[in-house]
TrEMBL record:
Residues 21-275 form the Beta-lactamase-related domain. PANTHER family: BETA-LACTAMASE-RELATED DOMAIN-CONTAINING PROTEIN (PTHR46825:SF9), D-ALANYL-D-ALANINE-CARBOXYPEPTIDASE/ENDOPEPTIDASE AMPH (PTHR46825). This is Beta-lactamase/transpeptidase-like protein. Belongs to the peptidase S12 family. Residues 331-438 form the Peptidase S12 Pab87-related C-terminal domain. It holds the Pfam family DUF3471. It comes from the Eukaryota. Gene3D superfamilies: DD-peptidase/beta-lactamase superfamily (3.40.710.10).
Length: 440
């Protein structure tokens, strides 16, 4: 985005359809007005490029909506047009809430302004100047090269072995992480950021790392506070040293990039397992940081232990999810208002897609297959009391102890027929549910 902004400032553009000057404070709706529409009119017209890139739009991630109608079922533009159907939970610029879809919106903005695919733009404006010859935009491009594409894996607890994961095809969320690369190539990008070299301008480098949002609560960050977010970069202080970094992961893969400007020291880590790659990277990069900063042995933390404490705390909470989510259940639960098979059917949400519920094998619960989504899972519903249910989100190849359990609820229409099901699919909504309307 910084390259596009600089091009507009210097009138250096090959796209004559739109030569309007833009900057980081330009509202997205002024560039893609038909597509960028939020539930709130004020936010629609006032969310800027930097708001979207610094996670302060007031909209949570809604990560489970991606691919709601199947893999690669939506284009970048189609994904952006779903924003109008996704609830916001805070006022604009009042709270940090990570949101990958806003990066999709910015990628759509870049493609609109340049008239070319984002992958092609990145290739000739960044990868080629930096000689990043082993970096690709799609799995097809990577597989067509003469390079070996690392197989991704996820640990399967039941089988006690690693299970292969297919290469992620996430064009719909490409602005948030579609690049396929290796540590040698990506180190060139980190060096560019750290030394503030071309192809980015000095102004662009300054803008990218300028903090904009205070991160008040993010359980994935182990660095002590304060934490700040710039434009695609997290800012942290460790033992008095400024750290610019970002972790990330998709099914089968995990990565971490980091640099310390004052030390001109950086790293790129990449692994080919789901989640556990990131766990190992935390232990390794904290060891390297402690070595660099000469942390006394008695002041070094056991990062592996801290990670597992968080994992085990989450598992303990999931074991008692029924009591935690429904603390005021009657002594004798109320029966459901309908027979179980009357709840079965196809339910649709305009952004989250399909929730096709079937009666389970035991005949007392319901199950929906969402394994073709970007976050693939089975949704298993267990009756609690009345119209209230417990939904277990069984993500593909996830340890069953880590399955998240959330509230679910059915509504009945005036025709005495079940017509809606709500599932608590977004934690930032504080108990408010995503409602799927029955189709049949």
């Amino acid at each position: 985005m910084s390259l596009v902004i600089d091009d507009r400032k210097s009138n250096r553009t090959d796209n004559d359809r739109n030569t309007t000057r833009i900057d980081w404070t330009t509202p997205l709706a002024s560039i893609i007005p038909e597509d960028f529409v939020l539930p709130d009119d004020y936010a629609t017209t006032h969310v800027t490029i930097e708001d979207a890139l610094s996670h302060r739009t007031g909209m949570p991630d809604h990560i489970r909506h991606f691919g709601g109608n199947g893999p690669s079922s939506r284009t970048v533009r189609e994904e952006v047009r779903l924003l109008r159907h996704l609830p916001s939970t805070a006022e604009l610029r009042t709270k940090y809430m990570y949101n990958n879809l806003m990066y999709t919106a910015v990628s759509h903005t870049i493609e609109t302004l340049t008239g070319e695919d984002l992958g092609a733009f990145l290739s000739h404006r960044i990868w080629t100047p930096l000689q990043m010859t082993d970096t690709y935009w799609t799995p097809e491009e990577a597989q067509a090269s003469d390079k070996v594409l690392a197989q991704g894996y996820a640990w399967n607890t039941d089988k006690g072995e690693y299970i292969p994961e297919p290469p992620p095809d996430i064009i719909g969320s490409s602005g948030a992480g579609a690049i396929i690369s290796n540590v040698l190539d990506y180190a060139k990008w980190i060096r560019c950021m750290m030394t503030r070299e071309e192809p980015l301008s000095a102004e662009a480098h300054e803008a990218l790392v300028q903090p904009r949002t205070i991160i008040t609560d993010d359980p994935t960050i182990l660095f002590p506070p304060p934490h700040l977010y710039a434009l695609g970069w997290t800012q942290a202080i460790y033992r008095g040293e400024h750290i610019v970094w970002h972790p990330g992961g998709v099914a089968g893969y995990g990565a971490t990039v980091m640099f310390l400007p004052a030390h001109q020291w950086g790293l790129v880590m990449a692994g080919n397992t789901t989640l556990t790659s990131n766990f190992v990277q935390v232990v390794l990069y904290m060891y390297l940081l402690d070595e660099l900063l000469k942390t006394p042995p008695n002041e070094r933390l056991d990062w592996s232990r801290l990670i597992w404490e968080r994992v085990n705390l989450h598992r303990e909470q999931q074991m008692h999810a029924r009591e935690l989510l429904y603390p005021q259940l009657p002594t004798v639960p109320l029966p459901p208002a309908h027979l179980v098979h009357e709840y079965a059917g196809l339910y649709i949400h305009p952004a989250y897609g399909r929730l096709d519920l079937f009666v389970d094998a035991g005949g007392s619960g319901l199950v929906a297959d969402r394994t073709t989504c970007e976050v693939p899972m089975m949704v298993v519903l267990e009756h609690v009391s009345g119209e209230f249910w417990l939904a277990t989100l069984q993500e593909k190849n996830q340890d069953p102890r880590d399955y998240e359990k959330v509230r679910a609820e059915f509504k009945t229409g005036v025709d005495s027929r079940v017509n809606e099901v709500g599932v608590d699919l977004e934690a930032e909504m504080a108990g408010e549910k995503i409602w799927f309307r029955r189709v049949y």
